[in-house]
Amino acid sequence: MPGDLHNHSTCSDGSVPIHRLPLMAARAGLDTMAISDHDTLLSVNYCYEHPVQDGVRLLPATELTGYDHEHKHRVHLLCYFPDPESRELKEHCDILRQRRNECGLQSAKEIEALYPQFRTEQALEYAKDSGVLFKSGIMEALHQLGLCDAVYGKLYSYLFGWEPRGVVLHQVKYPSVQEVIATAKAAGAVLVFAPSPTDRVRETFSYFSLTPFGYANFAPFITAMLTCVVLLLALISIKQKRVCKALFIVSLVAAVISLLPLAFGFSYFSIVGVFITLML
Fold first, then answer.
1. Cα 103 from chain centroid?
2. What is the mean pLDDT of each run of 10 residues along the chain (280 residues)?
3. SS3 letters for the chain?
4. Measured on CA atoms in the order 97, 111, 18, 174, is the torsion positive or negative?
5. What is the CB neighbour count within 10 angstroms for residue 116?
């Protein structure tokens, strides 16, 4: 059952109207998709009203935003099958819509001073479906004016970046993560943490996996096979000393292969990887 559980439309900061997404999903070979626009019930209600469209099953969802005060970072949580009549969820969406819109309008006003050809009204054209002026809408207007080559490029970082801080960035005051979780619970929803496109997700696979990285080691299957050869030669060497040279060479090759992740950076290596290399 191929599907996509994280999508945005023009009901928030997406670029495609919500009614066009199902057909695009069908053409991509998907039979299930969740439309999870930011802090809104628009995508939730649409999917409840259109459970199947263009042969694609639509899952009602919204992406709730909270703030982790301990780590000083925004947190995105995908909220599936919420009750659209939930008082807590409605309140959350209303508050975030107002706060986000205020920040967007303030940023647009400052951009008008930076780029005289830009007008806030142009950006508001991209906010008709959502009722909120998202940063993406501002960037779409700037892109249309030929002031940038891409919506999420160098100009976006200059205007709205986190580090260094963008020159027109106004931080939305988000509720705490604990409050957002309580809101989702009150709405009877299924909640899943949503990594940002810029967040790096580290995965660990079986040592005998055929995937490129297993236990943070390069070519784990090759390393595993060489390890088996090492063990076999070690057993033979107990009675036949002449295989010791072959044992040493195979062990060295396996050890070198297990160290190759370091070519991509230390984050690709793990304590388990160090242990495997030392054992080899």
1. 23
2. 91 96 96 97 98 97 94 91 97 97 97 96 96 96 95 94 92 95 96 70 48 47 70 72 72 73 64 65
3. CCEECCCCCCCCCCCCCHHHHHHHHHHCCCCEEEEEEECCCHHHHHHHHCCEECCEEEEEEEEEEEEECCCCEEEEEEEECCCCCCHHHHHHHHHHHHHHHHHHHHHHHHHHHHCCCCCHHHHHHHHCCCCCCCHHHHHHHHHHCCCCCCCCCHHHHHHHCCCCCCCCCCCCCCCEHHHHHHHHHHCCCEEEEECCCCCCCCCCCCCCCCCCEECCEECHHHHHHHHHHHHHHHHHHCCCHHHHHHHHHHHHHHHHHHHHHHHHCHHHCCHHHHHHHHHC
4. negative
5. 7
| Residue 220 structure tokens | 């784990």
